Amino acid sequence: MTQATEMLRTYPADLGGVDQQALARCIDACFECAQACTACADACLSEENVAELVKCVRTNLDCADICDTTGRVLSRHTGYDANLTRATLEACAAACKACGDACTEHAGMHEHCRVCAEACRRCEEACRELINALG
Amino acid sequence: MTQATEMLRTYPADLGGVDQQALARCIDACFECAQACTACADACLSEENVAELVKCVRTNLDCADICDTTGRVLSRHTGYDANLTRATLEACAAACKACGDACTEHAGMHEHCRVCAEACRRCEEACRELINALG
Amino acid sequence: MTQATEMLRTYPADLGGVDQQALARCIDACFECAQACTACADACLSEENVAELVKCVRTNLDCADICDTTGRVLSRHTGYDANLTRATLEACAAACKACGDACTEHAGMHEHCRVCAEACRRCEEACRELINALG
Amino acid sequence: MTQATEMLRTYPADLGGVDQQALARCIDACFECAQACTACADACLSEENVAELVKCVRTNLDCADICDTTGRVLSRHTGYDANLTRATLEACAAACKACGDACTEHAGMHEHCRVCAEACRRCEEACRELINALG
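The joint structure predicted for all components is written out below.
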């Protein structure tokens, strides 16, 4: 059981009908993607061809920030606001799409970009599933 | 001249036609709103009627995180991505709207909610202006 | 293998002699603690006796922010700075100690505080182990 | 009057004897430094000699995260914890020192590094003044 699942289980009030498995999966995916993107930006900085990776670094940094914030917003349930949740998930899916695409371009050459691209794809998918589950 | 304006001025490459005054105003509004929301959440915790303010606290926390992330995304110009910028600004405007509404409900009773609601309104407006300026 | 371990494995340059297992454990513990503290603050807001939990909420929020930042700093290896790493870990250990203590006071009554206190203890321990490993 | 000063003024409980001017100055300096460091990291990515600036970028990113977290911790007053505040300020001063030094090395060549170094120096000084004011 992940930390997010454990914390969902102990929430003392009604979680309001949101699919808890999709929610927990998305929280986990957000924090994992934030970590991967933070580390990938730094790994790019240590590559000899860093000058060719600057767009990748920038997208990594945006994606890390947005995933982190999305993981936080999804970890809160008190006074739930569907509009705000949906807008945040849309921004997160857009960031993960952009970062997954940028990293995929370098995935054959840089192993960290390949691993990070996979984290971005998982997080994008988890965001879209949760958007659909919100109705 | 604010820090954001000064940093925009020193950016070494092309800023790509974005309205720099609208951009600087939005960056400043995001960080000011993040500070106001962080402080307002804490001020609510010190009110005797905190039990009536829990939705306000939660919305403050979401708004602080989203404004902070938006201020960071807007402070980056390398490898600019209009889709990602727009989705982030939409989430920020939604958060500021929700938080401004929540704080306004208590603005007559709690001065920190009144001040915070004003910061949220300014930031929401700055986000919408920038969305329009992006075309 | 966790995301942090996978990203450490793919870092393209020398990791400089830091104990990689202790490092990966601490990164994981930081992000798990950040999630637990964010969720615990929110869970406290939904408790009927929220007025008695305000110090717990505040400490949760500090701990979430500091753990998140520490997890980010530890995910970077380029241009490593031992002094900065140590000062960050000391702040994180202090935050986890304070939050673990605050949550422990309510652990018998609130399950989320019990689970969060455990995450804080694990993270505090992981920080202290890494401080020792830094020499 | 800055946002931080305005929010301090509206805090509904006792601020506990901390020098409010030093506190407000430090909160403002933290958020300004976070913005400057975020923008400077990005500006470095757009420089032709980015390969020589990777340590500067990394230190910028650490400093942005730590200043942002410190600004948040200082914006909370409920359940004040002097130990945690001091440890956070020490980490922030260390980050600002490291980043100010890194940026100063390139200040003659890159205007954004010069402006960012000044923000780091102001923030380091504000942190040290506040540490002293805490007693």
